[in-house]
Specification:
With 120 residues, this protein is of the alpha+beta class. It contains two helices and three strands. Strands 1-2-3 form a three-stranded antiparallel beta sheet, with no helix packed on it. Helix 1 runs antiparallel to helix 2. The chain starts with a strand and ends in a 31-residue tail after the last helix.
Length: 120
């Protein structure tokens, strides 16, 4: 893994080849984003974790291992913690624990659960 833009852009090594994969997180500017210079579209941690959950489910369907279930639950817990933090920062309640948090709809603007487009 190589950091291209700290906290926002990464170059990931690929297996079985020489190509690299880019991972880009959204970068925004303004008072809410201290230290950011420049901006561009990208994803957030929660969306990457949703992909990791799906990948782990796929691997588990190939070769079952109960540790995969623990991995999925930890990733879900991480999504919940990130969403709880965001809700707190935006003075919203986030007092529920959905069983499959990776499928709960998110705001199309900020990417968070429970925002209901009130972020704008």
């Amino acid at each position: 893994m190589k950091v291209i833009d700290p906290g926002h852009k990464y170059e990931l090594d690929n297996l079985d080849g020489s190509l690299k994969t880019s991972l880009t997180f959204v970068k925004r500017e303004g008072n809410k984003y201290p230290g950011n210079t420049g901006h561009y579209e990208g994803t957030n941690l929660q969306e990457v974790m949703r992909a990791l959950i799906d990948r782990t489910k796929y691997l588990n369907s190939q070769i079952y291992d109960q540790r995969n279930l623990a991995i999925i639950n930890k990733l879900r817990e991480c999504i919940w913690l990130l969403e709880d933090r965001a809700a707190s920062r935006h003075s919203r309640e986030f007092d529920f624990w959905p069983d499959n948090i990776e499928f709960v709809p998110t705001c199309k603007y900020c990417g968070h659960i429970g925002c209901e487009e009130n972020c704008r």
